[in-house]
Amino acid sequence: MTHTPLPRTSDNALLAEAGEGTRVEFRGIEKSYGSAKVLHGVDLDIAPGEFVSLLGPSGCGKTTALRVLAGLESSDGGAVLLGGQDVSRVPTNKRDIGMVFQSYSLFPHLNVAENTAFGLRRRGVRKPEAAKRAKDALALVGLEHLADRFPHQLSGGQQQRVALARALVTEPRVLLLDEPLSALDAKVRVQLRDEIRRIQLRLGITTLFVTHDQEEALAASDRIAVMNAGRIDQVDTPENLYLRPATAHVASFVGLSSLVRGEADGEFVTVWGTKLPLNSPATGTVDVHLRPENLRLVGQQDRAIAGVVEETTFLGSMRRSLVRTETDDVVHVQHDAGQRLSYGDRVYLAVDPQPVAAREVA
């Protein structure tokens, strides 16, 4: 998909120069550290102006992939292309990439404006021009009024906004974000996540975002590449990943799911007497991934299974309860906050006939 930057009327130079982004391609990237192979032939195509997240658990290779793209690590095989050109042997400072990391890495002896302009000054941009462009970058992240402050006078969220402004001020072709929100508290994390997405859409800059947080990836991305043990399991839109996971790992990592046994006959699987469509064909005994919203609390009826509440959690507009069924399955069920359950309550569950992911039992 090709993304066009959002319309704008600002005289901000960064917005005026915004284009349609640069295509990024990973082609068969291999990487090992000693005898440990961390990337196994990674292929990924990011469209111009697209926001793609690399999502996966610690040690899956997502940060290594980003560092290979940035030129901070060399690959053992394969190629990285920017705008159709192989940059595998091009040094980091020649790749025209902006980067933001978990640590803010601001210079304590420089004020906000000077920190933001640092990359421009290193490139030989004259001081008045660098100051003007730094002001525009700070306006983009809402910090122009703090230009004279020093890092120790800023909150964590403000420092990370400065780091973002510094990454964007050089007008890079690609923006790389390596878990930039991990060190922030929950509320600030959500605010900055949404702000990063708004800025990315306004600039139309191709962006690769590395995170282990599924909520961040689901909320911000055009597409998500789910990684597992150095490989990409699935690349898809957030909605498709959640509703139609291609593998058991994707089903278990993206969103909350419970494993229950079922019997599959190709296109369908039977769970607790209810026939459910499968995302991909399977036969025989399978482990089925049920989302909390796949289950409903019902009265005693046909095709309802009895269970006992083991715990319940209040989540504001809803509750989530853990139920052990009479078949000894332990499942999460999501229900209205007004349905108050307690430990030991007997309940009945029904399964909604939505497509589910399953894996054959060896």
Automatic annotation (TrEMBL):
SUPFAM superfamilies recorded: MOP-like, P-loop containing nucleoside triphosphate hydrolases
Molecular function GO terms recorded: ABC-type quaternary ammonium compound transporting activity; ATP binding; ATP hydrolysis activity
One GO term describing the cellular component: ATP-binding cassette (ABC) transporter complex
Every ABC transporter domain range: 24-254
E.C. code: 7.6.2.9
InterPro entries for the chain: AAA+_ATPase (IPR003593), ABC_SmlMolc_Importer (IPR050093), ABC_transporter-like_ATP-bd (IPR003439), ABC_transporter-like_CS (IPR017871), Mo/tungstate-bd_C_term_dom (IPR008995), P-loop_NTPase (IPR027417), Transp-assoc_OB_typ2 (IPR013611)
Record keywords: ATP-binding, Nucleotide-binding, Transport
PROSITE patterns: ABC_TRANSPORTER_1, ABC_TRANSPORTER_2
Superkingdom of source: Bacteria
Name this protein carries in UniProt: ABC-type quaternary amine transporter
Native species: Microbacterium sorbitolivorans
